[in-house]
Amino acid sequence: MDETTRQAARQWTLAQPAVSAFVTSVVRDFGDRDDVLQDVAVAVIESFDSYDPDYPFVPWAIGVARNQVGMYLRSRRRDLLVFDDDTVTCLAIAIQDVEYEKSTQFDFLYDCLGTLESRSHRLLELRYQQDMKPAAIALRVEMSANSVAKALQRIRDRLRECLERKNVEATQ
């Protein structure tokens, strides 16, 4: 695999959730959606040479997806439940905005997680990375299941407050 293809695949992997959300918002049939998404992936890889790395990749990939979705919709014009071009454009813009917000929220969450003490990190790791229930966590950390559940709730509340504070700071 050459370096251009490797870089295209790397960028596609990061953009795929947003592109998939866009395609899913327009193409309602599961089989058709998977076909369109596969066509988008191929088009992204094939046209990667035209991508300007000075600009964000996700909006560019969504632009490629808009073209593929447009071709799909033109082939389905006889269906009654097909979006017009303006609606598809609005959805593409909305998905880009959500993707940007999501990436910002992840940055904020990373910062907020950094403010927690190690015990809180351990509880979050057991609950969300290892998918353990409070009763199982309680056995591991020598606490009662009720205490674990309450501690997790307090941690989530602190993280939510931190995220809200960072959102307010970012908009000022």
Would you write up a description of this structure?
By secondary structure, the chain is mostly helical. The protein has two domains: 1-101, Orthogonal Bundle (Rna Polymerase Sigma Factor, Chain: A), CATH 1.10.1740; 114-172, Arc Repressor Mutant, subunit A. 79% of the residues lie in helices and 0% in strands. The protein has seven helices and no strands. The termini are far apart.
Characteristics:
mainly alpha, Rna Polymerase Sigma Factor, Chain: A, Arc Repressor Mutant, subunit A, 7 helices, transcription, DNA binding
How many E-type strands? 0
User: Per CATH, which architecture of the largest domain?
Assistant: Orthogonal Bundle
Q: In the residues, how many domains can be counted?
A: 2
Query: Under the CATH scheme, which class of the largest domain?
Result: Mainly Alpha
User: Runs with pLDDT <50, length 5+?
Assistant: none
Rounded Rg: 21 Å
What is the share of helical residues?
over 70%
* Approximate strand percentage: under 5%
Structural class assignment:
mainly alpha
Task: Characterize the biggest β-sheet.
Answer: none
CATH topology of the largest domain: Rna Polymerase Sigma Factor, Chain: A
Short note summarizing the structure:
The chain is an all-alpha fold and 172 residues long.
Spell out the blueprint of helices and strands:
Blueprint: H1 3-26, H2 30-46, H3 57-75, H4 85-113, H5 118-129, H6 134-141, H7 145-171
Helix pairs in contact: 1-2, 1-3, 1-4, 2-3, 3-4, 4-7, 5-7, 6-7
